[in-house]
Amino acid sequence: MKTRFSSHRLLIITLIGTVFVAIADGIAKIGALSLLVDRAIPILPGVAELYLHKNMGVVANTPLPMLVVIPLTVIILVVCVVWLCHSWKTQHRLSVGLILLVGGATGNLLDRVVHGFTTDYLLLFGRSVINVSDVLIVLGILGILFSVQTTSPSKS
């Protein structure tokens, strides 16, 4: 019974933590839109800097009309939330991944609805500009893949 309590506690902590991280990302996006116009702020030269990029597309700036991106994102979010509701009590690793994915996707969706683009503000290695919601999405996908990998029956 203790393991079950601990697993549920982990889910609640993940949920609360994701909400706080998503809110912090939203605040960072607002700050980027007002403070990073026409300038960059180095954090670690050559590695990371604060830099405003208005991402009009999806992953890696892939152009896709918002009339496609927004409904598709909503559909994916609904599927993930339903999946989360079904997995919450029995598949804790999967649920953690879904919570992270939903948190990140919601943050970027809100940005797209409000601004018409996703606000990216962390330039890595002079190549990719991301935001914390992107990190949540990647961690969520990795968590889901790890969960599916560890719960799949072995093929011997």
Keywords:
156 residues, alpha+beta, 4-stranded antiparallel beta sheet, 4 helices, 4 strands
Describe the structure.
By secondary structure, the protein is of the alpha+beta class. It has one domain (2-151). The protein is built from four helices and four strands. The protein has helices at residues 2-35, 66-87, 92-115, 132-151; strands at 40-44, 48-55, 118-124, 128-130. It has a four-stranded antiparallel beta sheet with strand order 1-2-3-4. Strand 3 and strand 4 form a beta hairpin. Helix 2 (66-87) runs antiparallel to helix 3 (92-115) and helix 3 runs antiparallel to helix 4. It is globular. The protein starts with a helix and ends in a 5-residue tail after the last helix.
